[in-house]
Design a protein that fits this description.
alpha+beta, five-stranded antiparallel β-sheet, 23% strand, 18 strands, four-stranded antiparallel β-sheet
């Protein structure tokens, strides 16, 4: 079994940049809100002299136009789910990663307790503690997906390209055990599309860039070495001791003993290692080599979808809400496609600047169930235009738990032309409902009643086009000629105002019903022109409808 490890050095920071659509912004910093210290920064901020642990006031003095993003420890779980969600398209077995920033944040929180933190940390960690998972490292089982992607090499390339498209720095490595793959990913170079880089160099600079081309070829060779599992035994043997997920005490002890690589450590007798450094170290080494299996907890997509975004600025109009909402709905659309679901209702919560004021809760309706991001945004935008904001908005949250299976692809395959017309009609009805309100646009369904004014009822739009069961089908008026326009109340009409053309057709209620009616209906020609629908009772004739 083969495992692909994806190490993301700054995944939480880069996810927040992606969420806030700050990929093209140079000089971005993630800071801790209580201590106001820098937790992570991009390449441009680093070149300006900004470092982790620095105060944000110092960072702003070094780079006046720096973009500050507040770190929220609760967002890390959302970011982890986001990573696992799109990685789920490459493997059904995805082991979630552990966030080092969250651990660092918790450490700073406990540091405020002084001696209490130091005692609890020593008690929890211990001198001989080890960790079986590498922080910030995602693990995917890929050996079973080779046929799907026409080879594991193609899978890795597509996975790396997807990460690059999302603005993520990733280091990839393949090994026969999960832990070995994670350790190799720590040493692997940042993934890049090196073939495209080489082609661009030769196109732009020709043969004068031999040094740069040679450098890219060396980098490509190094990157491929970590992705060739047949030849990574040497890479594991030369793995530095400091890369092992062990306590600082164990790491320093190994260095003092003159042990600098993993092969030097594994060459020692296991019995002596166990007696001196404890059983957890032996278990760690056997899991790296595969002699002992490593239990894994895999990601399972949730049956609901939720995403929260704290804005970097205050929004005072609904037009400003659309910009950040577009990215959130793009992610929702990807989730729907993965699960082969379509969305029926979306709950949208808008948090105001004044936290004491209750957030604005909105329900966005998709009567025909939608899964495409453009249509999700379009109908959402129409419904938001009817809403008024009472204060500037600083937070967005979307939640969805009502879905329907996607069936549009099959309809298009069998009846393409008809499906296109149906889609246009459905989009028109959805747009009307979004503009006018869900209570203003309804569908019509037949009811098993003899009287025309009782033989129909209004229904929701999402029931239009659904196939009725045999018990739901009503055949009382099948084959009969009926007008599309019925009057709200039948009107008395003189016999001289119309001429009977066809009829009669007797319609009457059942004998056991309290209100008993017996009517003889005729198709008639009105003196003013047009065909009308009249009926006769003992009192006389009544006008009930018009034919189009």
């Amino acid at each position: 079994m083969l495992w692909l490890a994806a190490y993301y050095p700054q995944w939480a920071f880069q996810y927040l940049r992606y969420l806030h659509q700050q990929q093209s912004t140079d000089g971005c910093v993630l800071f801790e809100p209580k201590s106001l210290q820098v937790l992570a920064c991009d390449h441009s901020a680093t070149q300006s002299g900004i470092r982790c642990g620095m105060s944000i006031s110092t960072a702003q003095s070094l780079l006046a136009e720096v973009v500050l993003i507040e770190f929220d420890v609760h967002v890390t779980q959302q970011a982890s789910d986001w990573l696992c969600q799109w990685s789920y398209a490459f493997s059904a077995r995805v082991a979630p990663l552990h966030c080092s920033l969250a651990a660092q944040y918790a450490k700073q929180e406990l540091t405020n307790d002084g001696a209490v933190f130091n005692q609890s940390l020593v008690k929890k960690a211990g001198k001989f503690s080890v960790n079986e998972f590498v922080d910030d490292c995602l693990v995917l089982e890929v050996s079973s997906m080779g046929l799907v992607f026409d080879g594991i090499d193609n899978l890795v390339q597509q996975y790396g390209q997807k990460a690059l498209a999302l603005g993520l720095d990733v280091q990839l490595a393949i090994a026969e055990t999960p832990l070995a793959a994670q350790l190799l990913a720590l040493q692997a170079p940042i993934f890049s599309s090196l073939s495209d880089s080489l082609h661009k160099v030769f196109l732009e600079q020709g043969y004068q860039s031999n040094e740069k081309a040679s450098e890219l070829e060396q980098q490509a060779d190094l990157q491929n070495r970590y992705l060739q599992h047949e030849h990574n035994c040497l890479l594991l043997d030369t793995l530095p001791i400091k890369a092992l997920p062990v306590s600082n005490y164990l790491s320093e002890a190994f260095v003092n003993m003159g042990l600098h690589t993993l092969s030097m450590l594994t060459a020692l007798p296991e019995k002596d290692l166990g007696q001196r450094f404890g059983k957890p170290l032996l278990q760690l080494l056997t899991k790296i080599s595969g002699k002992l299996p490593q239990p894994m907890q895999y990601f399972e997509p949730a049956s609901h979808y939720q995403q929260k975004l704290t804005l970097l600025y205050e929004v005072e109009s609904m037009l400003g809400i659309i910009f950040p909402l577009r990215r959130m709905l793009d992610d929702l659309a990807s989730y729907l496609v993965q699960r082969q679901w379509a969305l029926q209702t979306l709950s949208l919560s808008l948090g105001y600047r004044d936290r004491e004021l209750a957030p604005l809760e909105l329900t966005i309706y998709y009567p025909f169930a939608e899964h495409r991001s453009a249509e999700l945004l379009s109908l959402c935008r129409m419904q938001l235009e009817r809403v008024t904001l009472y204060q500037p908005v600083v937070e967005l949250c979307i939640y969805a738990n009502k879905f329907a299976p996607i069936t549009q692809g099959q309809t298009h395959l069998l009846t393409h032309a008809k499906a296109g017309k149906n889609d246009a009609g459905r989009y028109l009805l959805s747009s009307l409902q979004a503009r006018l309100g869900s209570d203003k646009v309804k569908g019509i369904a037949s009811v098993s009643e003899h009287l025309p004014e009782h033989s129909w009822q209004s229904t929701t739009l999402n029931s239009i086009g659904k196939v009725q069961t045999r018990q739901q089908e009503h055949t009382l008026s099948f084959g009969a000629c009926r007008p599309f326009w019925l009057l709200a109340q039948p009107e008395v009409i003189a016999r001289t105002e119309f001429e009977l053309l066809k009829g009669p057709e007797r319609l009457q209620t059942h004998w056991w019903q309290q209100a008993y009616y017996c009517r003889d209906y005729y198709i008639a020609s009105h003196v003013d022109g047009g065909l009308c629908w009249v009926y006769q009772e003992q009192e006389g004739f009544y006008l009930h409808g018009w034919f189009s």
